[in-house]
């Protein structure tokens, strides 16, 4: 210590105590504000999620479905997207967007939508406008999840070989989100009871999916779905039992990954 320098006088204890108390209060206020902000964000995210699910349910309701199909479509599409190495935010978006793939059916008359038996050529033409109607409902927005929902709605009946509708796109020209949902929707439709047939077994479904590889569907996506089929089926069954859903997205296991 320099003997020439006077020893600095410590601040008055009362003043120091006050600073300390103010600091503690400031920190408490800061933590409370952060908690409130997190709670508000969670509430908003949940409201956003629920609103999108209800919108999807509106279309399925008209179609006479219980709504479980769209939960499966969301969860299984996200599962497959993760297998294909898509970024996590993209996978979360597809989980919310995929359930709205058939929302355009809102615009199809019940006389066609609910007609038992086959449709006439003219009725089929009207039915095949549902992707365009869906894209009109969901599109023209800068909200990423709705933009993805619009491209899925528009593209989920396109075929890899270019023979689908409404635009006859082929291969990579079809948005990847729509290619994923198309495969999952096909698998899910086969494993559901229909008025004209019973649900196919998992083995029969696998054979059907493999038969469409490269014609109807993207071969890489079919390969990923086939490789992970047991886990996709297990996730489907868990959703049907009410044990899993969109709140807890399933994560692929190492063994699921296609080679
Ligand atoms: Fe459709
Ligand atoms: Fe569907």
From TrEMBL:
Residue span, HD-GYP domain: 44-241
Annotated CDD domains: HDc
InterPro entries hit by this protein: Cyclic_di-GMP/3'3'-cGAMP_PDE, HD/PDEase_dom, HD_GYP_dom
MF term (GO), any: phosphoric diester hydrolase activity
Keywords for the protein's UniProt record, in alphabetical order: Hydrolase
Pfam families: HD_5
Domain of life per record: Bacteria
Protein name according to UniProt: Metal-dependent phosphohydrolase
Organism: Thauera phenylacetica B4P
């Amino acid at each position: 210590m320099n003997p020439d320098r006077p020893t600095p006088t410590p601040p008055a204890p009362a003043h120091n105590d006050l600073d300390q108390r103010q600091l503690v209060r400031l920190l408490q206020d800061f933590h409370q504000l952060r908690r409130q902000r997190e709670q508000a964000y969670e509430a908003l995210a949940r409201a956003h999620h629920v609103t999108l699910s209800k919108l999807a349910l509106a279309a399925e309701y008209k179609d006479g479905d219980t709504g479980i199909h769209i939960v499966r479509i969301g969860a299984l599409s996200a599962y497959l997207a993760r297998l294909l190495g898509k970024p996590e935010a993209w996978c979360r978006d597809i989980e919310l967007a995929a359930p709205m793939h058939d929302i355009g059916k809102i615009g199809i008359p019940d006389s066609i939508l609910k007609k038992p038996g086959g449709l006439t050529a003219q009725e089929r033409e009207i039915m095949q406008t549902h992707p365009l109607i869906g894209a009109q409902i969901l599109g023209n927005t800068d909200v990423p999840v709705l933009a993805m929902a619009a491209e899925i709605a528009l593209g989920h009946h396109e075929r890899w070989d270019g023979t689908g509708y409404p635009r006859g796109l082929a291969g990579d020209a079809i948005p990847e989100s729509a290619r994923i949902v198309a495969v999952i929707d096909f698998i899910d439709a086969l494993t559901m009871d229909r008025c004209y047939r019973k649900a196919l077994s998992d083995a029969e479904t696998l054979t059907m999916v493999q038969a469409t590889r490269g014609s109807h569907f993207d071969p890489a996506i079919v390969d990923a779905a086939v490789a992970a089929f047991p886990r996709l089926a297990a996730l489907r069954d868990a959703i049907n039992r009410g044990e899993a859903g969109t709140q807890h997205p399933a994560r692929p296991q190492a063994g699921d990954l296609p080679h």
